[in-house]
Amino acid sequence: MKILRLRVRNYRGVAEHEVEFAPAGVTVVQGDNEVGKSSLAESLDLLFDYRDDSTHRAVKAVRPAHRDAGAEIEVDVEAGPYRFTYAKRFHRDRFTTLTVTAPRRENLTGREAHERALAILEEAVDMPLWRALRLQQGVRLDQADLSEQTSLAAALDAAAAGALAGEREATLVELARAEYERFHTPKGSLKAEVLALAKAEADAEERADDLRRKLAELEDDVEHCASLVRTIAELSQEATEQRQRVSGYQARWKEVEGLLSHLRQAELEAQLAQHTKTTAEAEVARRLELIASLAEAERAEGAAREQHQLSTPALVAAAKAVADAEERASAAEERVRTLSAELRSHQAAFTHHRDRHDYEVLAERFARVQAAQSELAALDALLDGNRVDDEALARIEDAHLALAQAQARADAARPVVVIEALAPVSVALPSDTAQLVAGDTTRTPLGPDSAVVVGDLARVTIESQTQADRIMAQAEHALATALAAAGAPDLAEARGMAAARRDAVRSVEHLTRTLTDNLRDLTPERMQAKIERLAERVQGDGETATVVHDFETARQLVDTAEQELARAEADAVLAREELDGHRATFARLEQKADKLARDLELAAHQVERARQSLTAERAGCADEALHDRLLQATDAARRAEAQLAAAADVADRARPDDLKAALDNATAVLDKLDAERAGAERTHTEIRTKLALMGDEGLHDKLAEAEADVEHRRRQRTRTEERAAAARRLYDTLLRCRAEARHAYVGPLRAKIESLGRVVFGDDFAVEVADDLRITRRTLGGVTLDFDQLSTGAREQLCVLARLACAALVAEDGGVPVILDDALGWSDARRLERLGAAFNVVGQQAQVIVLTCMPERYRHIGSATRVRLENVRY
What we know:
Rossmann fold; six-stranded antiparallel sheet
């Protein structure tokens, strides 16, 4: 496969790049970082691997960053007998087109184009080898995976003159692998469907065992049914005897229940007597509590009345202090209002004089601004008409000097004509006319196309123009062009115009500074508007201002008024603070007096309520009657307790708990015997029903069928396991043979790598290559090191050389291009120079594409085609 042209458009941060690659040899694509070099290699994967409607994250990642458009990729490819152009647009307005121009023309679009392109690549290109030979930017530095590449294997086989690794043999291995994978997992164990056969056999065996178990159970049930008949008769006899025992216990229990009823009645009477006693005790306690509450309320009322009488004098004194403080605060506030009015009057006069001063200063600055603007306008007109700046004057002087030098060289190179008169003759020369007599001689230099007239005899024209004359003509044209561009007739006038322009520029700079200094943060329009506002305010303030006639006096009056107002405000603050203090004291005392009055009123109310409660209680029952009721209730409670003790003694001698336990146990035994007999009867009925049903199922026939199914599944499982073992044996044998074949064709690859390596490292270079076609060791200068022990630069160089060697080996069959993205970053200058020679050798056979931001790494590749990518922004 050869990539002839690649175009990407609207691809991530790339607006558009189109690159044509050399069909054979090395193409170095160079450009700065982020110009889109890696995107070229990446775009080929997207074009070949994904449909235009794919939502894979790799496709989403290349959506253009600054444009609402779809990423486009187009490539021209040669692959075997095919030559085609393949294009796709992703994301928006998607399309896929394929134009095949050889071996016959085809035009396809959409999914048909995608599938046809995949078919062509599958037929004509070893895609795994192509991907393996790429070295991508940002990917871990490692050797290419070449162990499964059929085209490389065929090339190595041809180089080894064998027939052990061709396409046919690889296909046989794949068929054996497919047969092996029918029965085995990637880890080598049997697949689930193979294991399922053993499980199916076990299931069939389990069904047969289940039928055997059912037949055995049927026989057991017949014996069990006979034993149940005997058990039911025995349980019926035991239940009859137990029922008689229960009747005896029930008769004795009725007698004991009468004793227990008498005991419960005695308990109720004792509880009632105790409740009556408790109620009488509570009533006596409540009467004593009411008497104590009345005495406590009368004591609290006396204390509250005494406190209320003591608070009145302090409250009167606090009210008088508040009135005096209010008078002082009012006087202080009045003085503050008077001084504030005076201050406003003085501030109005001060503001008037300040506005007048600002108006005069600003008007003076505005006059300077207007003058500077007028001068700037004149200078701008002068500069617009005078185009001779220092740069234009330099061009004119350089052209004038070049003309003088060219003229001097032309004069030195012009031919000289020597005329000797043989007879008197008049000679017309380019500069004048000479009258010569016989023997006279004249010499004159001639310019191009000069003519000499000899009397009436001849005209001699010199048709020649030297290189110096042509240079002088060019210099004259350059000087005329420079003077015309500057608008000056000659050099002297141009110098005068340049001096005048420099003076004007300096004046402009000075006037610009003047404008800046006077305008400051204003514009001329804002300055003029500010002046007009100040003029209006000065005129308005003048009508209402005080009679103060100067700015300084007005400012002193304002300062004095502010100081007096500040002192008056401080005095007013002190007066208000004093008033607030007296008011707070009065409020606190007033609040305390109100609380004492409320406390006195509450105490009197509580005395009255306690007195009324006690009176009401005594009206219902006198104190002496209440005590007599308590004594009677106590005697009745003692008598009830004695009767309860006698009834309890009679009940305890009858031992009711033991009798109840015996009755409950006898009843439980009877219930258990009845339940066992009922269970046995149910079981007997169920077994008889089951025996009747199972007699119709044909268990013996079913068992015979199940045993036949077990034998069938056993044979099926045995055959499948034998095929799986045979597939494993065949696959292992082919792998062993292929490994032996690989060992045979490691030599050609090693020879190719060593051939290229000697160009880079020298004649004492050698490598060892493993059966998986990876470099394992390198020998240089008699020292052998493992690949992993080499420096990063050496490992990188060997990885590149191995890919180049593979590309050279498969080149005769069409091959695949090698794409290297920013490789050789760890190589020194001497190795880079020799690597250039190795690239040059491989480029004679294969296509190599290098993407780099450091083109100096590859400057030693003599035959390389170089393509420069420029930053193209949206």
